Amino acid sequence: MRYYVVNNTRFDKTDFAFADRNGKVNLGVALKCEECSSYLTSFEWLPPLEAKLSKGILGDVIFGTHNHFIISEKFRSIFLDNNFKGIMSFDQVTLYQNKKVISQKYYYPRIVLSNVKIDLIKSGVEFDGNGQCNLCQKAGRTITKMKGLCFDEKNEIDTDIFITKLLPGDIVFSERLKSASTEITNLTFFESDKFIPNWLRAITD
User: Fold this and answer.
1) What's the N-to-C CA distance of the chain in angstroms?
2) pTM for the full predicted model
């Protein structure tokens, strides 16, 4: 099966609205690697969830200052109706636009942090240090170069959406979920084996 990485357009000029966390922001813990104890994620966003929208079209997917994305009822229904796997829960988000609460329902999905292994050689991954970790593969190091996100052929991936320990800020879709999401607005993809994070492009281009 092929896999695809979501194109996070929060820093791009698009016609779609983006979100900025609003009100009192409650934060939980950041997840650490169980083997090397290096941090893997940023602090978790906890309820009550509120966000302020910019001007623009309200898409089925909304990017912003939160991790990953906020999704519409339409996306949630597609996910649940097809029995896709990889989202642990859907927390409802109160969204404001022009200082008014919008009537449409939106959710913040808690996406599985997968133990999937990346083929570092095929992916062309280089780091800024010599640390080693068999579990997260980063050992607290920063990626300085890569040419794609290629999964180890030994992996048995049983989720349709997930984040990796190597790149926990980027969402991966299975081909099945991508195919079911063709009518979801503000959602585009990179083929995983050609994906390079925007922040890495900015320092290597």
Assistant:
1) 30
2) 0.95
